[in-house]
């Protein structure tokens, strides 16, 4: 039996319920997930292949072995709407700032408020995951305001240089 479903579906319970409706009872012998999100069983690697690649990297310094079995993290977010951000905004996002409209270069169509989106640099590097506070139409119509709330920063903080200055603090006279 093949079942295409969303996450959170309890297949064992579904099989049990089918058995109840048919009046014969039912249970599963095996449950095998062949696809989840962008990942497919036929393109996956086995644990021993990963273990061997790590061994080759640690013992012989062969990065190519690891690169052949580990996908870049950009692949994980392939199904999410994408937003390309200007280089000047990358460092601020890397430090946890939210993304304002002026920092956006390109935005996917069809983004709705509350959607999870992937923020990318202009070089195609995954910078962060964020929640949309504006729809695509609102972003295109405005020239200011916070468009995305940063939820998870992926890029290391010092990948891009800071383009903002720290505010000098004033001291109170005593």
What does this structure look like?
By secondary structure, the protein is of the alpha+beta class. It has 3 domains: 1-32, no CATH class; 42-71, no CATH class; 74-153, Archaeosine Trna-guanine Transglycosylase, Chain: A, domain 4 (Roll), CATH 2.30.130. The chain has 5 helices and 8 strands. The chain has helices at 11-22, 47-60, 63-67, 87-94, 136-141; strands at 35-36, 39-40, 82-85, 99-100, 104-107, 116-120, 126-132, 146-153. A 6-stranded mixed beta sheet has the order 4-8-7-6-3-5. A two-stranded antiparallel sheet has the order 1-2. The longest helix is centred in the N-terminal third of the chain and has 14 residues, at 47-60. The termini are far apart. The model has no long low-confidence stretch (mean pLDDT 89).
Query: CATH superfamily of the largest domain, please?
Result: PUA domain
Low-confidence stretches are none
Mean pLDDT: 89
Main sheet properties: 6 strands, mixed
Strand order within the widest beta sheet? 4-8-7-6-3-5
CATH topology value of the largest domain: Archaeosine Trna-guanine Transglycosylase, Chain: A, domain 4
> C-alpha Rg, in Å?
23 Å
The fraction of residues assigned to DSSP E strands is 15-25%
